Structures are given as C-alpha cells and as structure tokens.
Amino acid sequence: MAAPFALAWVALWLIVRLVLVAVRYPVTVVTSVAGYWMYATWGLSPLVLALLSLIAGSFIWAGLDLPSFSAARLVPRPH
C-alpha cells in the first residue's frame, strides 16, 4: 500500500529538483533543450551542435567584453 505514495513522493521530489536546476542554471537548461530540439527537428549531430554552441558562445563573449575577445589579446603582439 505504501508503494504508490512512495512513487508519488519520488516523482514530486524529482520535479522540484528539476525546477531548482532550471532556476539556478537557466542558460544550461535552455541550451540543452534547444540542442535536443535541433537534434529532433533537423537531425543535427552532437558534433555540429557543439560547433554551433562554440560559435554562439564566441559571439556572446565578443558582445559582452570585446577588449578581452580581441585578437590583439589572444595572439601575442610582436615586439
């Protein structure tokens, strides 16, 4: 008789944990859901998704802090 209540408790606990992860790490959750959606919709491989994530991350980094992203800082200047 206790099994259905235990199962309901575990399901509720998992839902609460999932909501907490979504609140604490929204970018990770959105990226994961978008990656799964692109995989399911267009059949893109995980390698392509990783490459798109790298490109998008680079654009975001450049948009937020261009001086730290500039090529002059990534490649040593000749003396």
Helix-strand layout with pairing:
Blueprint: H1 2-24, H2 26-42, H3 46-64, H4 66-69, H5 71-74
Commentary on this structure:
It is a single chain. By secondary structure, the protein is mainly alpha-helical. The chain is built from five helices and no strands. The termini are far apart.
Global structural class:
mainly alpha
Shape: elongated
Q: State the share of residues found in helices, binned by percent.
A: over 70%
Distance between the termini: 78 Å
Q: Topology as H/E string?
A: HHHHH
Number of strands: 0
**Low-pLDDT residue intervals, each spanning 5 or more residues:** none
Short description:
The protein has about 80 residues and is mostly helical. It has five helices and no strands.
Pick out its properties.
79 residues; mainly alpha; 5 helices
